[in-house]
Design goal:
Layout (H helix, E strand, L loop, with lengths): L1 E6 L4 E10 L2 E11 L6 H19 L3 E5 L7 H20 L4 E4 L1 H9 L6 H11 L9 H24 L5
Parallel strand pairs: 1-4, 4-5
Antiparallel strand pairs: 1-2, 2-3
Helix pairs in contact: 1-2, 3-5, 4-5
Length: 167
């Protein structure tokens, strides 16, 4: 199973593709989509959408996992990131892909075992799970891979609960 994990944003969208075979997780490709500040917001959303469609077409995931928003400070930023999140989900759904959503706390719980883990702990666990030389940069990329790993763990758990075997 190939999973695309997404950490949504408007300036930087982190993405990470991993393959899950049994309990083995292998990184396929990861990076970020960036848009330029000061550019028309509609154009930025279009750039995010088109880049996501290209990545999906190229790496052909079986499922997409997106981090849910958690904002308690800047409402304007929350709206903009929410719009970016919407076009990312649209890109996946238009390709017929199932989309799962996870809160930051769920991701931290799945990766570190503690829902209030520090960012550095999550980054280090992502590095260890995927056997990477260093934690991916920027943080958005590590976060996207963490979301993908969270989904891999969640799908394994769901399969066990439902009595399904295999990857």
């Amino acid at each position: 199973m190939r999973i695309l994990g997404i950490d949504p944003g408007i300036a930087i969208v982190g993405f990470g593709f991993i393959d899950k075979q049994g309990s083995k997780l292998t990184p396929v490709q990861y990076g970020c989509i960036q848009t330029e500040a000061g550019t028309d917001p509609g154009l930025r959303l279009k750039q995010v959408y088109e880049a996501a469609v290209q990545l999906i077409d190229k790496y052909k995931p079986d499922a997409v996992a997106v981090e849910q928003l958690f904002f308690n400070r800047n409402v304007t930023t929350a709206f903009t990131v929410g719009q970016a999140r919407g076009v990312l989900i649209l890109a996946a759904v238009q390709q017929g892909l199932p989309v799962a959503e996870y809160t930051p706390m769920q991701v931290k719980q799945a990766i570190v075992g503690y829902g209030k883990a520090e960012k550095k702990q999550v980054q280090e666990m992502v590095r260890m799970y995927l056997k990477l030389q260093a934690a991916p940069k920027p943080d958005d990329v590590a976060d996207a891979l963490a979301v993908a790993i969270c989904h891999a763990h969640s799908s394994t758990l769901l399969n066990k609960i439902n009595g399904v075997t295999g990857s």
